[in-house]
Amino acid sequence: MLFDLSGLYKKIKCNGSVNKLPNGITLIAENVPDYELVNGYIDLNVGSAYETPEKKGIMHFLEHLCATHDMNKELGLMGVKIDAITSPLNISFPIKGSDNFLLKDNFVKAFKIIKNDLFKPSFNHEVIESERLTVKKEIIERNNKFNPYRDIIDSINNYLYGNNPFFKDNAITGSKESVDSITIDNLIDFHNKFFVGSNTIVGLIGDLGPNFELRDEIIKELSDILKGSLSELISYVPERLFNKNKFLSFNNPQKSSDCNIKIYYQIPINPVDISKINILMNILGNGFNSLLFKELREKERLIYGLSTKLEGHYITNYLKIEYNVDKSKKDFSIACVNNCINKLKSGDFDKDLIDIFKARELPGLIVDVKKVGTIHDYLKIENMGNINTKKYDIINQIESFWDTTKEDIIRVANEYLNDNKLVISIE
Ligand SMILES: [Zn+2]
What we know:
Bound molecules: zinc ion
Radius of gyration: 24 Å
CATH architecture of the largest domain: 2-Layer Sandwich
Distance between the termini: 45 Å
């Protein structure tokens, strides 16, 4: 099984470009000739993590103020769907339609409007007060959402991400009180400091013309943005939460004969072995050939469904195994999981499982690298690192897929699936 990437590298050279503008803006473009459509975004590499505790929610508030153009009928007529979003490390203003792309001419017009609203919003008293009400409504609505498992989920998250400042309650929106305390001057100060060229990334994906003419037009359009100073990337080192096996159990608010089991193994963020961990995870618990399916479903008839995946929140990552099992078989099922993990560590598994996984993934990977946007993503990760993009470089992943051996799987199983794990049951 082989996958030739040389054509793709040639395409990256011809159709991809990265420009560092004099005012600090990084512009990453992917040209898709004859596509007739374009989409893009203006992103700021700062977010709620840059706030002071007293001004929690100010970045999200600013996002609202800079996106009041959702009332703009002109943008509606261009097919623009407003979808700005604030996260701890990023504020994103996509310039797109409902299925991502806009007609080429509409894109340029929409870009100009959104850019002006973002970098030169009107700090008008009336607009600020009405947006303040909207933001507070958003906070109330989130807190009121009905979820019988809320307390359980909160405790689990607290346990998993307890030391992660990006995960705290209302980390992004702030509280009603903190939003009330934000003044016009605060908003202007934060805007002046953070909404600057040095923190800005602009992406363009689509039909930019034979010689990237559309990109050059956008570069001109961006020339009036002030450079400002680059805000340093915030990164936290996660506390090692699990020192030995930990077991937590909760009462299920919806009584059932089954209990839900979640087993977490901590994985460092951006590990060099991510592709190999991915294969390991699939051999362990994805698809009917996987060890957990063979053991828990086929042999013991304990479960129906099973999910094994990587999940996390910015600075803490987990490999999670989740299934439902009869309460009386809970301990036995966990022993079966341990058994499967020991098989991986000792090499007691069929090496064909690696090829089964590769064969299953190959078509999807081919689709992915041929997708519009892959070149852009590749260039973005290459230039910004994947902390900012929160994505893994698919091309790199493909390259390291093919040479994965049984010895690699045994090594990563021993390195990452150690005894420091968290087992949660909801009974
Ligand atoms: Zn909002």
